[in-house]
Automatic annotation (TrEMBL), chain A:
Cellular compartments per GO CC: cytoplasm
Keywords: Amino-acid biosynthesis, Glycosyltransferase, Histidine biosynthesis, Transferase
Reaction(s) this enzyme catalyzes, per UniProt: 1-(5-phospho-beta-D-ribosyl)-ATP + diphosphate = 5-phospho-alpha-D-ribose 1-diphosphate + ATP
Enzyme class: transferase
Annotated ranges, domain ATP phosphoribosyltransferase catalytic: 54-214
The name this protein goes by in its record: ATP phosphoribosyltransferase
Pathway(s): Amino-acid biosynthesis; L-histidine biosynthesis; L-histidine from 5-phospho-alpha-D-ribose 1-diphosphate: step 1/9
Classification lineage: Bacteria, Pseudomonadati, Pseudomonadota, Alphaproteobacteria, Rhodobacterales
Coiled coil: none
Organism listed in the record: Sagittula salina
GO BP, one annotated term: L-histidine biosynthetic process
Function: Catalyzes the condensation of ATP and 5-phosphoribose 1-diphosphate to form N'-(5'-phosphoribosyl)-ATP (PR-ATP). Has a crucial role in the pathway because the rate of histidine biosynthesis seems to be controlled primarily by regulation of HisG enzymatic activity.
Pfam family membership, one: HisG
InterPro entries recorded: ATP_PRibTrfase_cat, ATP_PRibTrfase_HisG
Its EC number(s): 2.4.2.17
């Protein structure tokens, strides 16, 4: 009987997560070779570390295959319909800050609000014969945001990476993506709209509301939460 | 819920509509997605199941029959025409997973140039068929609101922007507030209009939208800024109009009062009166029929005139059991230069089967 904890398998997100748990007396580490995704937990009994891609952690939590998981709130909200019924936020970890934003070419001096974007989109469609393309990988969140903002004549085009380059490459007119400092946006001659972001995200510790727990598991979970000082 | 019962109910309703003179029609479950995306934009993806066919490209599981029936009629139909159909439709339920994503609809669509009579025909037929179920009918008229917008004393560009957002009440309200000066101009726009060369800090031109297009919109914004504010009186009238919610005869009185100060809506109000008379001639108890000027505004994008719904008062969690309305503009958009006034409605037989079970009623369709 163990509690499974899902943690991003590489990069700064993994290291910072290890630091966050370490500072609370739970030591997480990778074991085996550089390339082997297995890990160890010390400082508490009955917890198993599962190293996963950050993008898969929401799905694993919702399926109940892991009990706890660290990932961005952006990924959870994009991938899980009615996310708050499937997972519970235990703690915001204070790193991995990023906003999901809508950006347009900096040369669009006439577009600064969602109102402007909507009007520009309508004119664009009349002129070019197709709906303005917005490149993103966050389809659900962006659609809901633009719907609430009353933007109508647009289409989302999928972009799984290098999204900031799509405008210059003429495969999109605007983008919606995660940004932390805005430097990549500026370097690609894009600017933020003067609106609230689609979402403010950071690395977050989630508990699955779906995963099965035995009596012993519940004890382990309580002990872990007490040690981490969450809930 | 029993599928055979629902099918039987759907077939019985379709037979009832056929007996009223409608030709039974059917259409494919997989429809080209392009048409719906063109008409309703990206939001279609949140409401319908869009998928990919290796040859035809993006296709959609039919979210209703109206669009294919209109296309079929425009391609090969003679006037006047009446059609009925029964079958499953498919709706994504992202926000409401507890609602059915697949259910039966039975419809009745009328293509006829006599507007008031056709409106009354469809409503009266539905009222009759639904009579045993104790539903509460409510009616509205999008045409009165559009007439009010068309008659506003402001620029054509502002009227067009309001028309574009008539189905998005919040956005519509924000535009009215700005045009009437109740909401200030955004700081970013004020700065843009104050700049001697708006393109000064623009940086390199990137993307498909050209400098000419950008300058053109800046010019439009300048013209718009010089436009006098919409008078408070006109905004008050529009507000009063949107708040009309009474039994039909009182609503008529109320709207005639408003039309004194807003003559642009007078023809639409008289058309409403003609419809009420046509409904009364069909035996509808117009004196007690509810009219709500805002009805259908946020959820019934097809419709641009008469709208109605039949609501189950004991089940506030349900969608309306039946909905319908006039969709002249849709025939114009799909008709490639041709158009024909059209009105139609659908019933959800699955909900009727549940009500039959609740009330211990047999499966037959009345009248």
């Amino acid at each position: 009987m163990t509690i499974k904890l899902g943690v991003p398998s590489k990069g700064r997100l993994m290291e910072k997560t290890f630091d966050w748990f370490g500072a609370r007396g739970v030591s997480l580490s990778r074991t085996g070779s550089e390339r082997e995704y297995s890990g160890a937990v010390e400082g508490i009994e009955g917890v198993e570390l599962v190293l996963l891609s950050a993008g898969e952690i929401p799905r694993e939590l919702a399926a109940g295959r892991i009990h706890l998981g660290v990932t961005g709130i952006d990924l959870v909200q994009e991938k899980l319909v009615q996310w708050d019924q499937k997972v519970q936020v235990l703690a915001e970890l204070g790193f991995g800050h990023a906003d999901l934003i809508v950006a347009v070419p900096a040369c669009w001096v006439d577009v600064n609000t969602l109102d402007d974007l909507d009007a520009a989109a309508a004119a664009f469609r009349a002129r070019h014969g197709f709906r303005m393309r917005i490149a993103t990988k966050y389809h659900r969140l962006v659609r809901a945001y633009l719907h609430a903002g009353g933007v109508a004549d647009y289409q989302l085009v999928d972009s799984q990476g290098a999204t900031e380059g799509t405008v210059k490459n003429l495969t999109a007119e605007a983008i919606a993506d995660i940004t932390s400092s805005g430097e990549t946006l500026r370097a690609n001659h894009l600017k933020l709209l003067a609106e609230a972001p689609v979402l403010r995200s950071q690395a977050t510790l989630f508990r699955s509301r779906v995963a099965q727990l035995s009596e012993a598991d519940r004890g382990v979970l309580r002990a872990l939460c007490a040690q981490l000082g969450v809930e | 819920m029993s599928l055979p019962l629902i099918r039987a109910k759907a077939e019985a309703l379709k037979a009832r509509f056929a007996a009223s003179g409608a030709a039974p029609v059917d259409c494919a479950v997989l429809q080209p997605a392009e048409i719906l995306l063109d008409l309703y934009g990206e939001d279609v993806r949140t409401r319908a199941f869009v998928t990919t066919d290796p040859v035809r490209g993006e296709v959609v599981l039919r979210p209703d029959f109206t669009v294919p029936v209109v296309q079929m009629h425009m391609a090969e139909g003679a006037e006047p025409a009446r059609y009925t159909y029964a079958g499953e439709v498919f709706r994504r339920q992202e926000a409401h997973p507890e609602r059915a994503s697949e259910y039966f609809q039975v419809g009745y669509e009328v293509f006829d140039r006599n507007g008031a009579a056709a409106d009354a025909e469809v409503f009266a037929l539905f009222a009759e068929v639904l009579e045993p179920y104790g539903l509460r009918p409510v009616t509205g008229d999008i045409g009165i609101l559009t007439a009010a917008v068309q008659g506003l004393d402001t620029s054509a560009a502002r009227r067009a922007a309001l028309m574009r957002h008539i189905w998005r009440p919040r956005r519509f309200r924000a535009l009215l507030d700005r045009y009437s000066g109740r909401a200030p101009m955004p700081a970013s726009r004020a700065a843009l209009l104050a700049a001697s060369d708006p393109m000064a800090g623009a940086g390199p031109m990137i993307g498909l939208r050209s400098e000419a297009e950008i300058r053109q919109r800046v010019e439009l914004l300048r013209l718009d800024a010089e436009e006098p504010t919409l008078s408070a009186e006109q905004v008050t009238l529009i507000d009063a109009l949107m708040r009309v919610s009474e039994a039909c005869p009182y609503a008529l009185e109320r709207m005639r009062d408003i039309a004194v100060d807003m003559p642009a809506i007078a023809p639409a109000v008289e058309a409403y009166d003609a419809r009420c008379e046509a409904l009364a001639a069909r035996g509808v108890d117009v004196a007690r029929l509810a009219f709500d000027a805002g009805y259908g505004r946020s959820s019934m994008e097809y419709y641009d005139g008469f709208v109605f719904g039949f609501i189950c008062p004991q089940r506030p969690d349900w969608p309306p059991v039946a909905t319908g309305g006039r969709y002249d503009a849709l025939t114009r958009q799909l008709g490639q230069g041709r158009e024909i006034p059209a009105v139609g409605a659908v019933i959800r037989p699955g909900l009727l089967v549940e009500l039959d079970a609740r009330d211990g009623r047999g499966p037959e369709v009345g009248a």
